[in-house]
Amino acid sequence: MSETVPRVVELPSPFTRFAGRLLVGLGYEVVLVEPPEGDGTRREQGGDAFVHWHAGKRSVVPASPEELRALLSTADVLLDGSPGGAEELAAGLDDLVHVRVTPFGLIGPRSDWQGTDLVVAALGGMLAQVGDPDGPPLRLPEQQAEQLAGVNAAIAALLGLRARRTGPGQLVDVSAQACVAAALEAGTLAYLHEDRVPPRPGRVHPLVPHGLFRAADGYLGGGLGGSPRMWDALLDWLREEDAAADLTEPRWQDPVERKKHQEHVFKVVQDFVGTWPKAEFAERAQARKLPWAAVDLPHELPDNPQLAARDFFTRVRTPEGERTDLGFPFAFPEGHRVRELEVRDVGADQELLHAGPPAEYPARQAAVQPALHGIRVLDLTWVLAGPYCTKVLADHGADVIKVESAGRPDPTRFAPFMHLSRGPHTDPNTNGYFNEVNRNKRSIALDTRTADGITVLRELIAHSDVLVENFSSTVMRKLGLGYEELRRINPGLVYVSMSGMGHTGPRNGWVSYADTVSASGGLTALTGWGPDDVVGVIYGHGDIVAGLQAALATVAALEHRAGTGRGQHIDLSQLEAIAAHMGTSLLGGPKVKPVGNTHPSWSPQGVYRCLGADRWLAVSVRDDTEWVALCEVIGRPELATDARTLTADARNHATDLVDTALGEWTRTLPADVAAEALQAHGIPAGAVQDGRELVEHDPQLRARGFYVRKEHPVAGAFLHEGVPIHLTRTPGAVREAAPVLGADTDAVLKEVAGFSAERVQQLREAGVLR
Question: What angle, 0 to 180 degrees and rounded to 10, lies between the N-to-C axes of helices 144-163 and 117-124?
Answer without folding.
Answer: 80
